[in-house]
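Reminder: ligand-aware prediction takes two inputs, not one.
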Amino acid sequence: MLNIGIVCYPTYGGSGVVATELGMALARKGHKVHFISYRRPARLAHYLPNIFYHEVAPMEYPLFEIKPMDTALASKIVDVALFENLDVLHVHYAIPHATIGYLAREILKTKNKNLPFVTTLHGTDITLIGADRSYFPVVEFSINQSNAVTAVSNALKQQTYEIFKIGKEIQVIYNFIDFERFQKRENKELRKEIASDHEKIITHVSNFRKVKRVDDVLAVFEKVLKSLPAKLLLIGDGPERPRLEMLTREMGIWNEVRFLGKQDVVEDLLAISDLFLLPSEHESFGLAALEAMACEVPVIASNIGGLTEVIIDGKTGFTCSVGDVDDMSQKAIYLLSDEAVLSQFRQASIQRARDFEIDRILPMYEKLYYSIM
Ligand code: GMT
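Here is what comes back for the chain with GMT:
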């Protein structure tokens, strides 16, 4: 069994969720997992055997307008690696974690400790932020310095090769789902609270950033409403939310839309949904779509990035051109107005989601860790 260090963002973003779920699954298999972050990851709320959490707390000093978090993180990794005798480090999201992994490994070499690290690329660390000149050279260097690099989809792997000069193999290891948690559970009470019997429930989950194109979710929903009664659940929070709330008022659909904010138990809401919308501009994988599919909810999404690797167009939902709200709404109406069709898509969705079951994916990471040690 291994002693594994995991570095991730503790926030609600997909990369933090994947890192936390992976760590918990490794711990259940008997590995010792050490999370190193500035805050306890959102899904690590309770005590779990084999899981340890090491908080990064940079010292305050009046000179620092911005605390030197990266220095504190590298120092903490060095400390944990030596004291807990880590075998391997797994960093999620290249910025700045691949750079910090490199720094920690090099410092540890001077102390006769070997700490190889895996960098998992998640998406915006490449497509949006990493590609920006303000980070580019450091990100490219750090990816190349990683002992192993993984990407969460083939699309992201290709984009990484197109954007950076990468001299090493990037292995695709898809994101995964835990079916014990994500599954359709009947909850008539909850459904009744949100919609009446004749209304369909359409859902969107995201961090409400521009890249998610939540305006398109509203535009599609407005068109659907012209054909059938429905409610829209918007789950999550982020910078775009206040503007979107205003927009729903201006569009006159406010009464049919519920902004639910961040939710810890998103699966309960997915389980009562009939359709999931994810019209993003970029999406390296689309974990939110997979979570919906595991709860038997078909997905209509953009035909970009990893979404086309997760959703089977015409079977588990539809993938449409970015911004084509006419096409998306026509397909939504087609799915929602025929119970037999909807039921077929629901069954195909869960079947497809099973390809991403955690038990299939976990051994790939374990094999990778052993290969670089
Ligand atoms: O952009 C986000 O939604 C957050 C971001 C993250 O890294 O926290 O998500 C990215 O990683 C997820 C987990 O691998 C993927 O499912 C998302 O598709 C990806 N987001 C984008 O590419 C925009």
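The chain has two domains: 3-176+357-372, 188-356. Residues 13-16, 18, 93, 122-124, 152, 175, 207, 211, 282-287 surround GMT (CB under 6 Å). We will return to this case in the review session.
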